[in-house]
Amino acid sequence: MINLTFEEKWEKIIACDQAYDGLFYTAVKTTRIYCRPSCRSRKPKKQNVEFYLDKEKVEEDGFRACKRCKPEVDQSPNTQFVQSVITFLINHSNEKIVLQDIANHVGVSTYYLDRLFKQETSETPRMYLEKVRIDKATHLLKHTNKTNLEVCYEVGFQSASNFYKVFLRLKNCTPSEYRQKETIK
Length: 185
Description:
- This is Methylphosphotriester-DNA--protein-cysteine methyltransferase family protein.
- The chain is an alpha+beta fold.
- It folds into two domains: 6-65, DNA Methylphosphotriester Repair Domain (3-Layer(aba) Sandwich); 76-185, Arc Repressor Mutant, subunit A (Orthogonal Bundle), CATH 1.10.10.
- It has helices spanning 6-14, 55-60, 79-91, 99-106, 110-121, 125-143, 148-154, 160-171, 175-184; strands spanning 25-28, 33-35, 49-52, 64-65.
- A four-stranded mixed β-sheet has the order 3-1-2-4.
């Protein structure tokens, strides 16, 4: 089960973030249609959205699959494996994680995990974990008054220098610059 707040899930669907496909579904109460987070269809009003973690549950509640993103169709035979790894990364993103921890969780060797995950997502588990941590950091920077250092440690980085380096690489700005840009909006 994935541990994201409603607001974090909402941000993922607004960004059409393909990385979260299969981890949760967006159901629109007014149209009775459900989609993947990456669906490019027009975004619904926030108050009309419900999130489901399970495809069977959303269909059981009377929603039908979107004809554009086809959330009922698995895209790869390894989808379940990748979703298991991603769920583990998201749920444990604030902890110190090594590749062996993930491999133990899914029951494969570190070599096989790294190779298959990269083949399916075009990223290593470490790169993916960094993206998850930076996503959480941007959410905290935008919605809290915590210092950059507090955010750094809360999202799971072990050092401030690594946090700043990764943040700059993924967002093309420092955490302080990001916060300033978001408060101007």
